[in-house]
Design a protein that fits this description.
This protein is mainly alpha-helical and 572 residues long. Helices cover 69% and strands 4% of the residues. It is globular and about 75 Å long. The termini are far apart.
């Protein structure tokens, strides 16, 4: 069958599998992996030549990292420096060391132990970034740590690939000289990308935009992303890292938002093919022939690797709850682990049995990743068990006093200091209304405190923290947290401590409003509904209909929403 026919079959099987699994309330990415496994060579064998599909999938990963880079300016990227360097170094170094020692104790030779360590140290950038994006946690403290660590892991691909021939005993005499040349070329490439972001790219995109051709702008944008990724690949860096750097370069221009919007649909299609192609590597026969081996490997990827990453985060003085969420986010097999595994097999470090078991366990861990990330906030609720380790490492707990002067109530409590929190704090200050801010991002706390804000490093999901800051004596509480499980946890803590406290909470989607109303929020502001109301008012005004936010039009809209919510909860 030709390539187009096989692609259509893969899409059909993947769509069907995703539809069925989403009905079971499982994340769509599990359906993509399951569809690939069904259609692949170890499933129904509907795909005979997976190479061409893997090429498209690789482009999908490039576009995914490229679009993420578009949201990271160079200044923002530099702010990740500590998390990227120290977080990544700790996670990779600790995982590598523990796996090498453990493998040797279990009887693996030196070369195999190093390969196992390399594979275990790498996580799935494409899978985790997508999951964090869907949950809107990429900019949360644990999300920033995860992302910085993933970028560091991508940087580690270069020395790992260079080290494999040496480990296998097949390295030439000039290996270290070659490594030095590649490192120099890599630094030169990064420098050229930075210069291009300041000079060539703005000039080029300005002239392309002047043509008024959307097709030409899209083609140029994709060409820049794929071209820079290819260039970094030629000097030994990973394609994914090159694509991310290309996005960072474009983020410095005035065309970043337009580029992101144009690339988004194509990116989603090709990234879906990537997950399907990963699913095609799943060989169910290994589960029958060596179930214990696969189970141990899956447990190692998720539990063992998750614990190591959690401890690494705590060494960086992250609170236990955030450290657990970061650790669980990094607990899986990575797409570059497939590269290491295949190369180790070619160099005869790993045999066929070891390779098949690793790939099988790897795919299973990737399937479980969205579920693990979804469950991470609930697992983090047990962070009290790690209090002795927090004390040993000198971690500053966010639910303990960090200031001698503690507010005694009679104020408005602003929880979360993003855009909405800043706007509210400014309004309260202008009206001489006392307020305090509780924030879990230590860097945000440091910067805001330097500007004189009454801000405290605190986990608002902790009843102890809320009690310490006398929230039960507050005038009102406004919750502005992007992470919905954390926002719900915070709301429940507020209700437990102060049942009559007016709580105003912001959530992204109208479909989640009723859940927070039932949990005790007095007012739930949904971003999509409020944005829709704003668009409606402005549109009516533009066509000559006088309206405002207390007009009959708005009263009708709110009435219809309340009736719909009542119907869905069974009250009508």
């Amino acid at each position: 069958m030709d390539f187009l026919g096989e692609l259509i079959i893969l899409v059909a099987v993947t769509v069907l599998a995703t539809l069925i699994l989403t009905r079971l309330r499982l994340p769509p990415v599990i359906g993509l992996l399951a569809g690939g496994a069904l259609a692949g060579p170890y499933g129904l064998r509907l795909i005979s030549n997976a190479h061409d599909i893997e090429v498209l999938a690789e482009i999908g990963v490039i576009l995914l990292l490229f679009s993420i880079g578009l949201e990271f300016s160079i200044s923002r990227f530099l702010r990740l420096g500590r998390l990227l360097l120290f977080g990544g170094l700790l996670q990779v170094g600790m995982t590598l060391a523990l796996v090498i020692v453990g493998s040797r104790l279990l009887g693996a030779d030196v070369a195999q132990s190093w390969v196992y360590g390399f594979i275990a140290a790498l996580s799935s950038t494409a899978l985790v970034v997508r999951a964090l994006e869907e949950r809107r946690e990429l900019n949360a403290p644990h999300g920033r740590l995860i992302f910085g660590t993933l970028i560091f892991q991508d940087l580690c691909i270069v020395p790992m690939v260079l080290a494999l021939p040496i480990i296998a005993g097949k390295g030439g005499g000039n290996v270290w000289l070659d490594a030095g040349k590649i490192t120099g070329l890599a630094l030169l490439t990064v420098g050229l990308i930075y210069l291009a972001s300041k000079t060539l790219l703005p000039w080029l995109l300005h002239h392309i935009s002047m043509t008024g051709s959307r097709e030409l702008f899209l083609l140029t944008t994709i060409g820049i992303g794929v071209g820079i990724a290819w260039a970094t690949g030629q000097v030994g860096l990973s394609l994914a890292l090159g694509a991310f750097l290309a996005g960072v370069a474009l983020a410095e221009t005035d065309f970043a938002e337009r580029a992101r919007i144009e690339v988004l649909p194509l990116r989603d299609v090709l990234t879906s093919l990537f997950f399907a192609s990963m699913g095609m590597l799943f060989d169910w026969r290994v589960l029958v022939s060596a179930p214990l081996t696969v189970l141990l490997l899956v447990g190692g990827f998720i539990i063992g690797k998750g614990l190591v990453a959690t401890v690494a985060a705590m060494i960086l003085r992250f609170p236990a709850r955030l450290a657990i969420m970061a650790g669980m986010g990094l607990a899986q097999f990575g797409e570059f682990g497939f590269v290491i595994t295949r190369q180790a097999q070619t160099l005869e470090i790993l045999g066929d049995n070891e390779t098949r078991a690793l790939l099988c366990a790897g795919v299973i861990s990737m399937v479980l990743t969205p579920l693990v990330i979804r469950l991470a906030p609930h697992l983090a609720a047990g962070s009290r068990m790690l209090q002795p380790l927090e004390q040993l490492l000198g971690v500053q707990r966010p639910d303990t006093p960090d200031d001698d002067e503690c507010p005694q109530g009679g104020n408005v409590v602003v929880i979360g200091f993003g855009t909405a929190g800043r706007l509210l704090a400014e309004a309260l200050r202008l009206n001489d209304i006392p307020y305090i801010i509780l924030e879990l991002n230590s860097e945000t706390v440091r910067q805001a405190r330097a500007l004189g804000e009454p801000i405290y490093y605190a986990d608002a999901g902790s009843v102890e923290a809320l009690r310490h800051y006398h929230v039960d004596k507050a005038l009102a509480a406004a919750v502005n947290i992007n992470d919905m499980p954390s926002a719900l946890r915070c709301l429940k803590g507020l209700r437990e401590l102060a049942p009559d406290l007016p709580v105003i909470i912001r959530v992204p989607y109208e479909g989640r409003r009723q859940r927070f109303v039932e949990a005790g929020a007095k007012h739930v502001v949904t971003e999509d509904f409020e944005a829709g109301v704003r668009v409606m008012v402005l549109t009516l005004q533009q066509v000559g209909v006088e309206t405002s936010y207390d007009s009959p039009h708005l009263q009708l809209v709110h009435k219809l929403r309340d009736e719909k919510a009542a119907e869905s909860s069974g009250q009508i």
